[in-house]
Amino acid sequence: MMSYFSNSKVTPWLLTLSIILFLMLDLCLLGLNFRVTKEVSEDALVINLAGRQRMLTQRMSKAIFQIDKDQINSPESQLLIEQFDRTYRLFSKTIDAFYYGGLITDAESNMVTVNRINLPEARSILFQARQLSEIIAPLNQIVAEHGLTSRTLNDLRKIMANVNDKLLDMMNQLTVIIEKNSKEKTQSLRTIQLVTFCFALLNFAAIISLFRQTHKQSKDLVSILDELFQSTNAALIVFSPDQRVIMSNKYASHLFGYSHRQLHYMKRSSLLLTEGSSGKESISLTQDGRELDVEVHERTVTHKGKQLHVVTIMDVSSHVERERQDPLTGMQNRHALAQALESKSEQVRALGGRFACFFVDLDGFKEVNDKYGHDAGDCVLKCFASRLKNNLRDNDRVYRFGGDEFIVLVDLSANDIPIEMISQKLHAIMQKPINLHNHDPILLSLSAGVAVYPDDTSDTDQLINLADQSMYRAKHDHSVEVVRYHA
Fold first, then answer.
1. At residue 4, does pLDDT exceed 50?
2. Pick the CATH number of 234-316 from 3.30.450.20, 3.40.50.300, 1.25.40.10, 2.40.30.170
3. Which of 21, 78, 239, 300 is most enclosed, with most CB atoms within 10 A?
4. Can you give the residue ranges of the GGDEF domain (predicted)?
5. d(CA 279, CA 411)
6. Helix (H, G, I), strand (E, B), or coil: what is residue 357?
């Protein structure tokens, strides 16, 4: 139980008002946490769908150009034109859902609601994409009503050759804009969260000040304040001037795994391994050795001539993990990749060194989806991700870039021996068939491109683009699986 000392009287209504305000601010913080979680989930859905549009664009073009014009009426040609029709309809419906809002099928074949995208840049891109998509619609309708002819096939090929690269570029721009807006929106919400917390902290300090004005009249009210302190959904710790714990709440014991007695007089450095400025993410260490991502807020107060540090520690591990992890494969996602590239490039600039970026794409993945369904496709992605994780070196980092595309970051020494080692491991990974539920095992191959930082480029976005270009060279040259970028 906390103790407070005072020589003056407290106005009851002022104390009551402060407690009510504290509760309201605490509820606001809770509401903001739900808002951040909801926004992150909605933005992740839109980003995934925007990334899927790129794959759908490639599918449409590939299906049209695989049709043999001399065997238009063959079963294979009919299957390809049906695939083109399904892919085009899904692409168009997704664009319309982005533009107007509405229901669309996600990667797991579930119907989800997508809110209208109101960003001016994004809407301009969507408007242009809808115009390009509508060019295909009349021919697609003719094929649906009268069947495929040599003339309509040639017309479709001309249109796809003209719009394919434009649509790919638009979908890439759309994904970048949505990701950027998502980060800015999340940061704005966190800023509001911080401001609300500061008001709560100031209000908390005001309550303490009111309680200190009198001891006799505030005994019962101290119990109320202690209950508020103990029931807050964050670890509240007061450190002495020499940075030792002199007061903590129940949640602090729950978060760090120490009893109240064990926490008392522990050093701050034993609880917080790394600290940014107030409000920034830090790393804390629990009793069992686990590291937690936490958000630390601090305020200094003066008590009897001594400066005390009131610190609030909020566990944000779930938010951080959700932002960085791909829900299907469990691998880290594009957001985590961007952070890793930024960190590694800064390390190279400061300390020297090199690293390689592998852009890996599964060959034949579309055919698996089309033949066996999306559940089988998901099974393939999970199996492939597991093999990457279990067969590559411990210091190699794997990320799901989107669809059936993965990124592998590999540290290099003065030579390129690790590139050859990883290439051999990628080859070995694909030699074992992949088991599907209720289907025969299948054997797939992969195509990969490699670019090296800073040898090929000192821009991380360009590094991925160069590796992507090399991957397409490997995909077109069936004699090799991995192609190293050369200018």
1. no
2. 3.30.450.20
3. 239
4. 353-487
5. 32
6. strand
Distance CA(92)–CA(464), nearest Å, equals: 28
Q: For 69, which DSSP code?
A: G
| DSSP-derived pairing of the beta strands 445-453 and 482-484 | parallel
Measuring CA to CA, which residue among 409, 73, 380, 22 is closest to residue 221?
22
214: DSSP letter:
B
Helix (H) or strand (E) holding 484: strand 482-484
Query: For residues 230 and 254, what is the distance between their CA atoms, to the nearest angstrom?
Result: 11
Where would I find the H helices in 356-416? Answer: 365-372, 374-391
Crossing angle of helices 317-324 and 334-351, rounded to 10°: 90
State how far the Cα of 251 lies from the Cα of 269, in Å rounded to an integer.
19
Length of the chain: 487
One-letter amino acid of 442? I
120: preceding bond cis by omega (within 30 degrees): no
| Angle ∠(68,70,76) on CA atoms, nearest 5 | 45
Q: Using only the alpha carbons of the chain, give its radius of gyration.
A: 29
- Considering the four listed CATH numbers 3.40.50.10470, 3.30.70.270, 3.40.50.150, 3.55.40.20, the one that applies to the domain covering 325-484 is 3.30.70.270
**Cα maximum dimension of the chain:** 99
Average pLDDT value over all residues in the chain: 83
Per-residue pLDDT for 319 more than 70? no
Percent of the chain residues topping a pLDDT of 70:
83
